[in-house]
């Protein structure tokens, strides 16, 4: 059957209110999507299906205080703590980093692909990753790459909603997120992890953050091996030592060197829709970009491309050419702003 046939069946059984056949057809479509390598589509359908089943189980007239009532309330609360629930199309070719970083991430992915084999030999599976390094060096992108390679749904934690001024609430909120991750067999992504995992003798600590760190230690220890936690921080020195030890993989993403700057430029321009007006200026641009983050370099390049494309619309050239002088000026301004901070 084609995807169109599955969709027709789903529409038919849905309109006929034939839930048994509707669920069977939906599961067949999910299997078809997986076989067709449309993994993200399959994951999104699975997520919709799980949410629908959970809502049906907790719907109807409920006694106040019943387990079903509390489950439905918790589902509603957890959604407030999730900034985004997504699947990722990013893979290794999207990431510019050192060979050693790619090798470490590759082994991490291989462990999850061999989950059953490792369990058979009673071996632990790495499922906690910490990305650290300067801002703009690919920590978030690396997280998306892992989600794409692992073919898992990712829950992006909303720190603003998680952290509460009420005593003990932050720990409870975290527990709800981790419970959802265990149920959904997915990834929890926590950016700015140092906000939660501060050292327990930190000068501003008045007791609540100690409880949060203790809660995280417990949640990490009891996280199912098929679920994953990815954390990112610009300030690894502020994270409690016991929490740092819990991470199976700690990956330092640093500022790019000349080779990685050149790789980033080539990846950004790989579509071939635009070209540099002076290719011999590339060496001086790479030299000028040293000291900037991947994000800053790509942002200046994309800005130069946009301005050059707009200017091209008023010329007769067949292909837009990136004004390298403009780009160098943008790089210089970026470095001046960096120095001024």
From TrEMBL:
Domain AAA+ ATPase: 125-257
Gene3D superfamilies documented for this protein: P-loop containing nucleotide triphosphate hydrolases (3.40.50.300)
A Pfam family reported for this protein in Swiss-Prot or TrEMBL: AAA
Listed InterPro entries: AAA+_ATPase, AAA_ATPase_domain, ATPase_AAA_core, P-loop_NTPase
GO MF: ATP binding; ATP hydrolysis activity
The protein's name: AAA family ATPase
Organism expressing this protein natively: Hymenobacter gummosus
Organism taxonomic ancestry: Bacteria, Pseudomonadati, Bacteroidota, Cytophagia, Cytophagales
């Amino acid at each position: 059957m084609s995807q169109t046939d599955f969709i027709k069946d789903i529409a038919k059984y849905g309109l006929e209110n034939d839930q048994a056949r509707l669920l069977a057809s939906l599961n067949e479509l999910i299997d078809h999507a997986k076989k067709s390598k449309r993994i993200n589509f399959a994951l999104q359908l699975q997520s919709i299906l799980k949410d629908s089943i959970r809502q049906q189980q907790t719907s109807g007239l409920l006694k106040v205080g019943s387990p079903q009532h509390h489950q439905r309330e918790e589902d509603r609360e957890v959604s407030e703590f999730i900034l985004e629930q997504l699947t990722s199309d990013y893979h290794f070719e999207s990431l510019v980093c050192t060979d050693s970083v790619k090798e470490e991430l590759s082994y991490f992915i291989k462990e999850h692909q061999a989950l059953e084999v490792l369990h058979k030999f009673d071996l632990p599976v790495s499922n906690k990753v910490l990305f650290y390094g300067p801002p703009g060096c690919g920590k978030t992108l690396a997280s998306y790459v892992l989600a794409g390679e692992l073919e898992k749904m990712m829950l992006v934690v909303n720190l603003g909603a998680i952290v509460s001024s009420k005593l003990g609430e932050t720990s409870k909120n975290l527990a709800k997120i981790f419970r959802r991750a265990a149920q959904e067999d997915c990834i929890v992504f926590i950016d700015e992890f140092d906000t939660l995992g501060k050292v327990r003798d930190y000068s501003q600590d008045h007791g609540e953050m100690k409880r949060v760190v203790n809660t995280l230690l417990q949640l990490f220890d009891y996280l199912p091996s098929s679920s994953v936690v990815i954390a990112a921080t610009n300030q690894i020195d502020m994270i409690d030592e016991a929490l740092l030890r819990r991470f199976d993989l700690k990956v330092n993403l640093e500022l790019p060197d000349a080779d990685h700057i050149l790789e980033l430029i080539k990846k950004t321009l790989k579509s071939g829709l635009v070209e540099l007006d002076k290719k011999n200026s590339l060496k001086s641009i790479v030299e000028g970009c040293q000291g900037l983050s991947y994000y800053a370099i790509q942002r200046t390049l994309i800005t130069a491309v946009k301005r050059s494309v707009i200017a091209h619309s008023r010329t007769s050239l067949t292909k837009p050419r990136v004004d390298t002088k403009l780009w160098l000026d943008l790089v210089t301004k970026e470095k001046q702003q960096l120095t001024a901070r």
